[in-house]
Amino acid sequence: MALSTTTQFALAAVVAGAVGFLVWGDAGEGVLEYVYADEVVEAPERFTAREFQVHGLVVEGTVRQKKGGAGDYTFEIEYEGQRLPVHYADMVPDTFAEGGEVVLTGRLIDGRIEATEMSAKCPSKYEEQDDPTRAPKRT
Amino acid sequence: MSLATLGSITIAVLFAASLLTVAFAALGAYRNSERLIEASVQGIYAIAGLSSFASALIIYAFVADDFSIQYVQHTSDSAMPLFFKITAFWGGLDGSLLFWVLLLALFSAMAVRANRYRHPRLIPHVIWVLAAIIAFFVALLVFLKNPFAPYLIESHPAGRGLNPLLQNIYMIVHPPSLYLGYVSQAIPFAFGIAALVTGNLDEAWQASVRRWTLFSWCFLSIGLVLGGLWAYEELGWGGYWAWDPVENAGLLPWFTCTAFLHSIMIQERRGMLRIWNLLLVVMSFWLSIVGTFLTRSGVVQSVHAFGRDPQLAWTFGGFMAVILIGGVALIWWRRKMLRSRNELEGVLSREFAFLLNNWILMVMALFVLGSTIYPTISEWMGERVVIRETHYNHYMVPAGLALLLLMGVGPLLAWRKSSTKSLKNQFMFPLWMGAVGIAIPMVLGLRNVWGLACFGLTAFTCATISQEFYRGIKVARRDGKYSILDAAIRLVIKARRRYGGYIVHLGVVLMFFGFAGKSFDIERKVTMRPGDSIELGDYEIVHAGLRVTENWQREMITANVDVRLDGAHVDTLTPARWWYFQTPDQPTTEVDRHMTVFEDVYVSIQSVNMTTGWTQMRLFINPLVNWIWLGTIVLLIGGVICIGTGRETKAGASARDDV
Prior knowledge:
A: CATH 2.40.50.140, 5-stranded mixed barrel, 19% helix, B: 6-stranded antiparallel beta sheet, 11% strand
């Protein structure tokens, strides 16, 4: 059975269509928007009822923890002068520190981020920047 | 003369030598001058010598704690054990580029030496391509990332130390084996380009290339699995693969290499897919460079990224464009010489199964590439996004299972076309086994469709392979002279590529069996104080206390965690958090696990409060996970058998068939 040219083209079209769908089609919940704290403060309506990641610096003096528990933290993060309150129910990672960078995954509920995941930035880089105190750069 | 100066001079000389070699080889090929070609061969050897010398110098600088060299100061400190000092050579950006050059130079010398007289027309072209690639990387060292760059002031700070996450045995082996995989892709690429330029497009050169690709494929496999094992043991999130951009980068050429190793058989047997195979050779090398680029330029955010460097990114971008456009243009130019000699005769043929396998692998490669660079492209367009594991798993799990199915079906189909009778004969046993493979986990309570499919296909493919061995051994024992083991060994030696291939498949099947275990996993994130206990599946996990210790390098908080089963103590695990004095803000997670053939009880400490004793732990039961590592060993044994060393027997050569 020799495949006719039409069949070959039809097969190629099916494959191309499938790849296109996979790569550029509906990415679904696997893709999250990544924003900086000030963007959320400036346009909160953009972030209601969906999960996203937010990046900012933990504001010194704002970290509170419910007494007796292991987790349940509230604090504020800031970026370019804009502050955003956060609630994190879990225990924070060791790398979490006031003034440090965090990336939170969560939702915006009543003006506060209800975070479900937290990564305190830095340990991932093989080579740190020369100035460890540098503020996160928006690129 | 200081070490730094000597090193910088060596690199400069290396650069000049590679440019000269390019010139000698290209001119030698153009003028057909034996003297110039011979000079270029010597040039390749000189490059290998010089890069070995430069590498020896940087290793010496590490061992001698020469912190006047910036790179040494950045990635080492005098307290580090000797072993880690030596391996810090590839622990950072500059050194890893030199390591790339070293490997490529050595491979080039080996390939040129082996093929100098075997493919005399191709050799000068192979040499100029290889020397040009080397020259590109050496140029990066000379102009952008000199690993010998010294501090210009007299007093320099003490060493900063290698990232603690990298002070781990897997990390010593994982990067070099991925590098070996990446770099060795350059050899098939150089041969492919040489064949295209000279128009010597017969199949002879591809025999040498197939071995190199197999070599590269083996090392990519080792590198990928070790990366997974490292993540599993070092990062403490209980998994081994999270579609990190740089892990993906290692996977990309692996996909195209796997595709090539299958489709080359169709070309050898049927003279088909000739353009496609050359395209795969070009793509594999291109994706290796993409992989190196993703790791080195920091364009994509990842655990591995070495930090942003736009200049390096643009330089690499240009190089990648030249490889891809140049390679594809050459194939287009020679398209008439590359016409297929045969046509596909039927859908129920091994060729068609291979073709499907190739398409799926290519789709997987394109999907992973697209998804890996998606955040970067999206950022250029003004929106920043992150891609999570679920996005990849959603598409890659079905694609992987389709491959597993083809792996089972392929060997059951005949070349050209299969008759209905032979199909029935071939499929009966594997189909039954597949059904059993689905039924058992169903009885055990599994309802996840993908999990069931994976178990079923694992059993089906395993049955196919066993059937092939059984039949082969039966024929070999016809006259009753050999024992079963003897017959099996003879069978493998006689048709190394075929049965080696089956052993590789068996390894992959075992790995999939391990992946399928994921559908039974249990995960809990708990916060406990000493004395607390908790249920985890059938086990009871008891927090038996914390202790703080320290040595010359780090402070350690270790938890004693008792693992009990049916009230009986089975193990005491000691997960820990380590704070290195050099990098106190980067504590590392030291996982501990209770390993059995069936499952791992896996415990990692996420954080610890020494005043209150609250310890946050992640607890996992990972069923069948150890089959992944076992499968890798089997896969590598198969790979080595396929590469082979000696000559195949005459009978074997005639009986040679491929998987």
